C-alpha cells in the first residue's frame, strides 16, 4: 500500500524515547494512567482521557485529528465505574472519531467521524466504516465490517468484507504511516 | 468582544466543576451549581445570554451556541435558558432555541436554531435536526434518517455519574473558580 508523506511541524510534535509522536495541541488527561506502547502517533486536537480510567494502546497506533479516546462508563445500582480501555497493535483511528469501547483488538481500522458506543468490543481485524455509529454494548467480531448504514457484514460464506490479508495490510499501513509521518524540512 | 469583558460576564455558581483546559466560554454565560464541564467544550452566547441549568453534564468538543441570526452587541438579546439535568455528549453541536430538562444529546448530534426541545428528549448519536421542529416531551430521535418516536422509559438518574466525576476531575484538572455567590449580595470580581 502506498502511503503519502504526512508532514508535521517539528515544533508541534514531541517524540518520546519509545518513538511515540504526540502533538502538543492535544488534551492528554491523567498521563500517568496512559500507556502508549511505542511508535504511536497522536495528532492535533486528539483527546485521551486517562483521568477517567487506564488507557493502553499497542504499537503502531494512529490516533487521528480531534479524535476522542475515553474509557467507557457503566452505571450500576450501587454507583458508576469507568472501565479501562485497551487498544491493540496497528490500530488506526480516523479523525473526529469518538471511541468509548471497552476494548479494541489489533489490526482494527476505525474510519473518520465514527462513534463507538460505550463498552463495545471490537475484535481483531475488523473495519468500522467512515461515519458509522456503533451502538453501546456491541461486539464486532473478527474480520467483520461495520457499515455506515449500521449493519455488520461478513461472516461465514461472506468472504472479503475485509480485504484479504487484513492483518498484513494493517501492519503495512500503520508502519508506513509512521515512517511517512515526517517533519517539514 | 475583548477578553476582559467576556470574563466579567461569565458567572459560575459554586459547586460546579468546570475543567479549565481549553474550554471556551464566550459572552454572557451563567453556569448554575452542580454543572460539570469536561475539557474542550465551547459555549458561545452570540445573540444573547445563556443560562445553563443545574446539574448539566457537558462533555468534550460540545458546542452550545445561542444564535438567532443576530449578534448581541448592546446586551438586549433574548436569553437562552437551558433546563437542569441535561446531558451533552462528546462532539454534539446544539443551537436549539429552547432546551427543557432531562434531555440527552448523544455523540455528534446536531440541533439547529429552528428547533425547540422540551423535556425528557433523547437526540440519538449522529442525528441531525435541521428543519423547524418542536420536540414534545419524551421524544426520541434515532437512526440514520433521524426518525422520531416517543419513549415510555424514564431516563436513568444522572446524579451518580455526576457525583463520581465531581470527585474525580479535580484531581487531574484545574477547575475554574466560582465567580458568583447567591448568598452574597454582590458579585465577587
Low-confidence stretches of chain B: 1-7
Q: How are helices and strands ordered from N to C of chain B?
A: HEEEEEEEEEEEEEEEEEEEEEH
- What structural class do helix, strand and pairing data of chain A support? mainly beta
| Rounded mean pLDDT score of chain A | 92
> How many alpha or pi helices of chain A?
1
CATH fold group of chain B: UDP N-Acetylglucosamine Acyltransferase, domain 1
Shape of chain A: globular
Tell me the distance between the termini of chain A.
25 Å
- CATH architecture classification of chain A: 3 Solenoid
- State mean pLDDT of chain B (0 to 100 scale): 87
Question: By helix and strand content of chain B, what is the structural category?
Answer: mainly beta
Our count of domains of chain B comes out at 1
What does this structure look like?
The complex is a heterodimer of chains A (185) and B (189). Chain A has one helix spanning 166-179; strands spanning 6-8, 13-15, 21-23, 27-29, 34-36, 41-42, 47-49, 55-57, 62-63, 68-69, 73-75, 80-82, 85-87, 92-93, 98-99, 103-104, 109-110, 115-116, 121-122, 127-128, 133-134, 139-140, 145-146, 152-153, 181-183. Chain A is built from one helix and 25 strands. The model of chain A has no long low-confidence stretch (mean pLDDT 92). In chain A, the strands form five sheets. Chain A has a nine-stranded mixed sheet with strand order 2-3-6-9-14-17-20-23-24. By secondary structure, chain A is mostly beta strands. Chain A has a single domain (6-183), classed as Hexapeptide repeat proteins (UDP N-Acetylglucosamine Acyltransferase, domain 1, 3 Solenoid). Chain A is globular, with a radius of gyration of 16 Å. The longest helix of chain A is centred in the last third of the chain and has 14 residues, at 166-179. With 189 residues, chain B is mostly beta strands. Chain B has a single domain, classed as 3 Solenoid (UDP N-Acetylglucosamine Acyltransferase, domain 1), CATH 2.160.10. Chain B has an eight-stranded mixed sheet with strand order 2-5-8-11-14-17-20-21, with helices on one face. In chain B, strands 3-6-9-12-15-18 form a six-stranded parallel sheet, with no helix packed on it. A four-stranded parallel sheet of chain B has the order 1-4-7-10, with no helix packed on it. In chain B, a hairpin with a 4-residue loop joins strand 20 and strand 21.
